[in-house]
């Protein structure tokens, strides 16, 4: 039986259209829905039969129908300038033959833009977008990571996260936004290294600002009931980053916002748009893959 999941994927790698707005011509990510057959999905994600992970009976259909990814490229409109879109499309075309269908895993701290940039990359590469946090929520049958931490434990969440990454590692042509802490378990690297890993390296003050702008309720490791939210988030992000930076550095490619800003002749990372960051990610992926090919030859 065929079951569809709420994944929308581009018909072609350059599946963006142009839209005239008051601010000029913008490209919009707007793509047709595709159907994924149940037999192409990892068994665990389809059936979710492990009672440890379920707080109640969850039918196969219920697990499949809601998107098992954060909204993929196309379900929300991504706006970028016509120039940015052309550069992105060109770079994606350059990278695709080297990628050869391998998945791209984005790693980085909470709020580093894995979801935002990941959706753009999926769009231009013609890949599907998945968010590992969302897949864990689906597998467990609980609708938020914060609640999974609260009702079970962080360890329970991490076990499920590893299983999700293992399942994804047998698939192709995906961009995966991983959870911020996925890098801490070596086993997860063995799954992610089946594809290409890209670290979005964002200064901690920019992260704290982004996160406090949207609130910390959905991010259990940062949530504090009292105190200045920016200062608390900044302090916690700093201690997490100190524990994790060597793990992030395992990634095949590093996209440093400070580095992009300095190439542009300034030091303000806040003006870097997600599409500029996505373009840099493609450049870094290309360098990594072409260097690897040269070494092989
Ligand atoms: N380049 C950018 N400039 C400014 N804000 C951004 C940028 N990229 C993402 N954001 C904002 O930062 C917040 C976090 O982004 P996003 O959800 O993509 O990060 P994430 O790495 O997936 O986070 P998490 O791992 O916590 O789910 C969002 O509010 C998003 O709109
Ligand atoms: O940085 C982390 O440890 C986390 C990041 C989020 O994506 C979630 O995976 C969860 O809140 C833990």
Explain what this protein looks like in three dimensions.
The protein is an alpha/beta fold. The protein has one domain: Rossmann fold. The chain contains twelve helices and eight strands. The protein has helices at about 45, 60-65, 80-100, 115-125, 130-140, 145-150, 155-170, 185-190, 205-215, 230-250, 255-265, 275-295; strands spanning about 15-20, 25-30, 80, 105, 130, 175, 195-200, 255. It has a five-stranded parallel beta sheet with strand order 5-6-4-7-8. The chain has a three-stranded antiparallel beta sheet with strand order 1-2-3. Helix 3 (about 80-100) packs parallel to helix 12 and helix 5 packs across helix 7 (about 155-170). The radius of gyration is 19 Å and the shape is globular. The N and C termini lie far apart (about 45 Å). About 40% of the residues are buried. Mean pLDDT is about 80; it is low at about 1-75. The chain binds adenosine-5'-triphosphate (ATP) and (3R,4S,5R)-3,4,5-trihydroxycyclohex-1-ENE-1-carboxylic acid.
State the gist of this model:
The chain is built from twelve helices and eight strands. The protein has 297 residues and is of the alpha/beta class. It is globular.
Structural class: alpha/beta
Assembly status: single chain
CATH architecture title: 3-Layer(aba) Sandwich
Largest sheet: 5 strands, parallel
> How many strands?
8
CATH class term: Alpha Beta
Name the CATH superfamily classification.
P-loop containing nucleotide triphosphate hydrolases
């Amino acid at each position: 039986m065929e079951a569809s999941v709420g994944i929308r994927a581009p018909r072609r790698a350059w599946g963006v259209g142009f839209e005239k707005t008051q601010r000029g011509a913008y490209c919009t990510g707007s793509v047709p829905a595709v159907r994924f057959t149940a037999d192409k999905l990892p068994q665990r994600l389809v059936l979710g039969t492990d009672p440890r992970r379920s707080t109640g009976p969850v039918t196969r259909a219920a697990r499949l129908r809601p998107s098992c990814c954060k909204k993929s490229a196309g379900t929300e409109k991504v706006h970028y300038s016509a120039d940015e879109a052309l550069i992105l499309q060109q770079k994606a075309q350059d990278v695709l033959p080297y990628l050869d269908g391998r998945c791209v895993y984005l790693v980085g701290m909470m709020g580093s833009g894995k979801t935002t940039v990941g959706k753009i990359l999926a769009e231009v590469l013609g890949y599907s977008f998945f968010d590992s946090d969302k897949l864990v929520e689906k597998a467990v049958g609980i609708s938020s990571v914060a609640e999974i931490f609260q009702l079970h434990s962080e360890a329970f969440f991490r076990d499920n996260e590893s299983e999700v990454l293992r399942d994804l590692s047998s698939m192709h042509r995906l961009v995966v936004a991983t959870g911020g802490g996925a890098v801490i378990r070596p086993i997860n690297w063995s799954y992610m290294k089946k594809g290409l890993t890209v670290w979005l390296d964002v200064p901690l003050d920019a992260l704290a600002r982004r996160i406090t702008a949207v609130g910390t309720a959905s991010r259990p490791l940062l949530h504090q009931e009292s105190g200045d939210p920016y200062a608390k988030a900044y302090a916690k992000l700093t201690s997490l980053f100190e524990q994790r930076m060597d793990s992030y550095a395992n990634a095949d490619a590093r996209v440093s916002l400070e580095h992009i800003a300095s190439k542009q002749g300034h030091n303000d990372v806040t003006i870097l748009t997600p599409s500029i960051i996505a373009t840099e990610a493609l450049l870094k992926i290309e360098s990594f893959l072409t260097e690897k090919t040269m070494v092989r030859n």
